[in-house]
Amino acid sequence: MDAIEPVVFSPRVVKPAQHATSIPDRSHWKGQRVHITKIEVCPLTGATVDGGWPQGHEPQENLHTLVQLHTDEGLVGCGSCFTSGRLVAGAVELLWPLLKGASAVQPERVSETLRQSSFWQGRGGTVEHAISGIDIALWDLMGKACNQPVSRLLGGDYRSTIRPYGSILFDEPDPLRKTLEDVVERGFRAIKLGWRPFGRRDRRFDELLVRTARETVGDSVDLMVDAGGSEQFWPHGTNWARNTASMLANYGIVWFEEPLPPDDLAGYIELTRVSPVPIAGGEVLTRRQAFLPWIENRAVDILQPDCTKNGGLSETRRIAWLAQDHNIQVVPHGWNTAVGLAADLQYSAAVPVARYVEYLTPCAYIDELTTEPFVLDGNGELQIPSGPGLGIELDPEKLNRFCPERIVFEV
């Protein structure tokens, strides 16, 4: 059949029976396949957080896109892509002939079929980012069909709570101090600071920023540092990274993230061998095959797959177990949405040695999209949702506010 042309329409309030976490009566299914009949591409705008790149990001920019898969039995599954809506829509137009009518309760088989069938036009990049969101939505559907949380379907729960780290950008010392105080006030007991102006001036200023952070939050809060080596034309090499890591060790930094460009495998191998603090990276990699040399060569101490672009929960589960088999820590990267965070929480529950999840803060796409907000407990821990699928419910009116138009493909 020919691909259905996308139609742009104004968002509507979804009836409760069609809502993302509504579980229809399954007594009549009797093992029948549940088919995918529609996908909605939902670009998020109006509250985009600056990502730290030199050009900055305005709130109206579209960096994140949700996808919603609908089935012939009334189930709706939601996924998240770290890619703009127009790019996701282009990829979905390519993938829709393979996706329409497919089983909604075989996530790994369906997403792997999309991947294998689009190599000549994808093999990473935008197509893989779109497959990532589709895969997350498929797992959400699978969980709802089985009335089980995704974590249980991924193999079982090793924990019911996990520590989130508040993810923020570096700033000048005075505003940085105020931001850190605000993050601690919100209940975070771990904070990651990243990107500009760290690594962009001189060593003395870098140390001033780190010292300011440690003095502000005290010794009881975990601190991580992200150099942002995936910024375009990153100028620093292994010597800078090694010397900077020595400075960070003096302040009890938990890990040093992306100190080198993301393609410098040899540099990471050497740095990880000699660094006095653990080295983290991997957020830009897509597909499990791209992670293999990093794992087999122990290029990092902490691997950071991003399930909203590396292939979804199916790929991330495989990556996490490969890393575990090589005694490499896994912490999800998540400059994210509520759906992406929920996916990170589900797979972190199913990974034996998980310790943290990234929590972009403040971020309306996390804090204002769900009917029930994420809440930190008195120990700075997040409860991992235990409801069906991803365990969260999107608020239709709030989604409409951040998604003024959707691109729809349907049978």
Briefly, what CATH class of the largest domain? Alpha Beta
Q: Return Rg in Å.
A: 21 Å
Structural class: alpha/beta
Describe the main β-sheet briefly.
9 strands, mixed
Give the total of beta strands: 14
Low-pLDDT residue intervals, each spanning 5 or more residues: 1-31
What is the domain tally? 2
What does this structure look like?
It is an enzyme of class 4 (lyase). InterPro entries: Enolase-like_C_sf, Enolase-like_N, Enolase_C-like, Mandel_Rmase/mucon_lact_enz_CS, Mandelate_racemase_C, Mandelate_racemase_N_dom, RHMD-like. Its cofactor is Mg(2+). Keywords: Lyase, Magnesium, Metal-binding. The chain is α/β, with parallel strands linked by helices and 411 residues long. The protein has 2 domains: 7-147 and 395-410, Enolase-like, domain 1, CATH 3.30.390; 152-383, Enolase-like C-terminal domain (TIM Barrel, Alpha-Beta Barrel). The chain is built from 13 helices and 14 strands. Strands 5, 6, 7, 8, 9, 10, 11, 12 and 13 form a 9-stranded mixed beta sheet that branches. Strands 1-14-2-3-4 form a 5-stranded antiparallel beta sheet. β3 (64-71) and β4 (76-81) form a beta hairpin. It is globular, with a radius of gyration of 21 Å. The relative contact order is 0.17. Mean pLDDT is 91; it is low at 1-31.
